[in-house]
Design goal:
Layout lengths: L5 H7 L7 E7 L2 E7 L2 E5 L4 E7 L3 H6 L4 E6 L5 H9 L13 E4 L2 E4 L3 E12 L3 E7 L2 E3 L10 H4 L12
Length: 165
Amino acid sequence: MTRDDSAFERQAAHNDPPMYLVTATADGEKAGCLVGFATQCSIDPVRFVVCVSKANHTHTVVCRASNLVVHVLYESDREIASLFGEHTGDEIDKFARWPWDEVPDGVALRGCDWFSGPIVDHFDGGDHDGYVIDVIDGRGRRATETRLSFQDVKSFEPGHPASEA
């Protein structure tokens, strides 16, 4: 059977999923990136899956990390979304350009709502790897704001392409 992704691609072009920012630490190295493939995947226990591009610098840290911090982004977070989405840790230290705090599971970016937990599973999703976290901590204050979505950031020039293909 010949593969034809055109129908899906036409439909997906209109999707508007929320955007997240994920940070990880491993062996003293910090990394973070903008992600669009992420969702809650369990109610009890509360679990969340984040997919990170294998082409992304952050992937090299996430695959060695034991915990992830997932930042919930709102429309007022365009500046941080741009920093972590349009630049790569291969070229700049994003954490030198945005204030952050150490939290029990890694680093949280100041001004952002976030949740975190240990990585309890991972899987190969093609050009992205999926990481499931057991949500055990977090901070949220801005739930009434409008979420930042894919359509809000689709004009960003990524620091790395989404895939190596």
